[in-house]
Design a protein that fits this description.
About 45% of the residues lie in helices and about 15% in strands. It is an alpha/beta fold. It has one domain: Rossmann fold (3-Layer(aba) Sandwich), CATH 3.40.50.720. The radius of gyration is 17 Å and the shape is globular.
Length: about 250
């Protein structure tokens, strides 16, 4: 992935990991477009980054995503990177169907639909990158958030398959695999000392992204406890440690 000179769309760019990545890529000399549901949060980020662009987006609405992509390509014909960062993580008691359906629509269908709308344009670019954001919970699930875990496992598998499909094109697929990070993704995460500080996560992640060639998967050291558990033969032990009495 090129480090500078890109035009980058970051979904979920109004806070947390998305906003931090937007800052880093903006500082590196890229045109950055942040998208999210809350205009006020987006405007606050843009106010501190002259030249950054904010657009609202509805990740659950298929037609809205199609229209959003068409308008964005028309306004920014050099668009060549999308970062699928928008996501929701909600605890569920047994199966909470409305929560499950909203989580799947945002975390899984949203990236698939948006990529479908952007891919024909990306294939015309000299260098393009689809960046997905999965989770360490794609590899060892957290019992309290079953649908979130499932969407991230699906994003991991989708990233693997799409990377193989696109290997002979100008489009790369890079997967970022975060551990628990101190953000507002779930209540209490931002102040939880067991979560990785956001600044540390972003610094290590950007260091890996800057490697040439960029690794296909971005695993900071902190997430390998989860993401490499099966490879170490420790899945059951890590699952038990992560989930306590479950």
């Amino acid at each position: 992935m090129k480090i500078s000179g890109n035009t980058i769309l970051i979904t979920g760019g109004g806070s947390g990991i998305g906003a931090a990545l937007a800052h880093e890529w903006h500082e590196a000399g890229n045109q950055v477009i942040i998208a999210g549901r809350r205009q006020a949060a987006l405007d606050a980020i843009v106010a501190d980054h002259p030249g950054m662009i904010a657009r609202t987006i509805d990740m659950e609405n298929a037609q809205a995503l199609e229209d959003f992509a068409s308008a964005l390509i028309a306004d920014f014909p050099a668009l060549n990177v999308v970062v699928h960062n928008a996501g929701i993580m909600v605890a569920e008691d047994k199966i909470d169907l409305p929560t499950a359906e909203a989580t799947i629509a945002t975390n899984l269908l949203g990236p698939i639909r948006l990529t479908h709308a952007l891919l024909p344009h990306f294939l015309t670019q000299k260098d393009a990158t689809i960046v997905t954001v999965s989770s360490g919970l794609a590899f060892v699930p957290l019992v309290a958030t079953p649908t979130y875990d499932a969407t991230k496992a699906a994003i991991h598998g989708w990233s693997l398959a799409m990377r193989a499909q696109l290997k002979n094109t100008s489009v790369d697929v890079v997967e970022i695999v975060p551990p628990g990070v101190q953000t507002d993704l779930m209540p209490g995460h931002a102040d939880n000392p067991q979560m990785m500080p956001l600044a540390d996560f972003i610094a290590e992640t950007m260091g890996l992204i800057r490697q040439q060639p960029t690794p296909a998967e971005i695993h900071v050291e902190r997430v390998k406890f989860l993401s490499e558990a099966t490879k170490r033969g420790e899945f059951d032990a890590v699952f038990a440690m992560l989930n306590g009495a479950h």
